[in-house]
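BUG: 3D viewer hangs when loading the predicted structure for this chain

Environment: internal workstation, default settings.
Expected: structure renders.
Actual: progress bar stalls at 90%.

Input used:
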Amino acid sequence: MNEVRIDKWMWAVRIFKTRTIAVEACKKNRVMVNDTVVKPSRMIKTGDIVQVRKPPVTYSFKVLDLTVNRVGAKLVPQYLENITPPEQYEILELQKISGFVNRAHGTGRPTKKDRRDLDEFSETTSVDDFDFDFDF
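Structure tokens produced before the viewer hung:
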């Protein structure tokens, strides 16, 4: 076996959970082989560098061997070498530490905290709350 489709290989070595997800990643230009964006049908060979962008990190793998059959997690190091730069993992750690949930504006319901903040912001003070008796 000299060449294998990129989508089959990524699924087989457990970069993606399903082959469908691997195909979608290729179609969304999130997979590059040797710094070239590829289609799911692109054939790869031993020695190629595969870059997979799973926001916010871009993982890099060197192809050590080819397979079309899904392998166990313990066997994955026989087929790929993780050459992702440490800076990418730092980005991932920073995002975990920040605790910020990246929720796009307008998607989903607001959280309880969002609602409380909104209620506090929109709470109006009535004129009765002020003391207009000034001491002159």
